[in-house]
Amino acid sequence: MKAHGLSETTLSERISNENKGIEISQPWLSRIVAGKFRRPTRVVRFLADYASIRLFDDGEKDAEGSKLIAQTVAEVWNGSRPHADLIAKLIRIAKGIAPTEQ
Question: What backbone phi and psi angles, to 5 degrees, belong to 96?
Fold first, then answer.
């Protein structure tokens, strides 16, 4: 912001005006900039992308972790589509509660 001579108010208005579906107030922008957010919500991720800031390292996928997940699904899945949908939903829920640091 400083390099472009933008205040938080100006930037929040610009983002909200230029990007349909994204509403960001100055106080919320200030909290995000200060790193005072719990989860990388859609708006937080958008702002990071907008500013070309990488929030997290993607890193390498753990082969043993992938194997564990596959084995667990094989153990608990009854083979039906409704049960597969339920397991997929539970995995997506887990994404929202996963620890950010290992």
Answer: -75, -15
